[in-house]
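Reopening this one. Same input as before:
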Amino acid sequence: MRNIIQRIPVPLCGVMLGTAALGNLLQSYSEGIRYVCGVFAAFLLVLVLLKLIMFRENVKEDMKNPIMASVAGTFPMALMILSTYIKPFIGQAAFYIWILAIALHIVLIVWFTVKFIVKIQMPKVFASYYIVYVGIAVAAVTAPAYEKPGIGAAAFWFGFVSLIVLMVLVTYRYVKFKEVPEPAKALICIYAAPASLCIAGYVQSVTPKSKGFLLGMLAVATILYIFALAKAVLYLKFSFYPSMAAFTFPFVISAIATKQTAACLMNMGSPMPALKMAVVVETVIAVLFVAYVYMRFIMAIFGGKK
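Same output, byte for byte:
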């Protein structure tokens, strides 16, 4: 058992996040499917917590690596979403879990900035940096569940400003320093996530809404989605790496953003029927990616593969 727990990689948190978010994406089809996704995500949470408890030193060592440290941001992000799953069962306690997750993410932002940004080394910058700073926007997506629009709006604007800054920084790194180790190549698919996450946070927590601003974000998100999808299809031929957790949440949140944009525009009296087909296509892609990556992680952890 210890050997199994020791094999659990930090990026498993990203799969947990993607699986939990997938449940919210599929909720309109079936509440049961949502809870199935919640159970699968909770199973991964148990594995991650066991790793934190049993192999603290290993985790500390991982956190010295900027990729692992940035990917660790998916843990509090997933915790925020999972808290909304258990809210009907534990009531106010879910709110405290949500607040704890936000606090953990803020601590990560401060620590990561001091550790890796103050004396930044551009070749060590990857798309996973988006997770640390834009990832806090998950609080904006989940804030309505706790009737905390103020926290949600603040999280959105922090995430949005971070998106603009990091879009320049991270893109410059990939253009200037083209060499990326094969195990880290899949991280570029994270590009699909930040703009879409900001859309979801904007729709959920910001009022009043601007149609032009929303469509502008959707245009950027769509371009980044197509870019990331092309990269994901290309990298599927590689050997399986933990970085392929980047095939999960970015594509799920993209489908959620398109779905929420369509609903928001409908409420504004400016429906875009074409978005309905886009939602279906993006949802199918998200389901396939999450199922594939989840299965590969489980095979690697329980099958004894390194």
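So the earlier flakiness isn't reproducible anymore. For the record, The CA atoms of residues 4 and 301 lie 6 Å apart.
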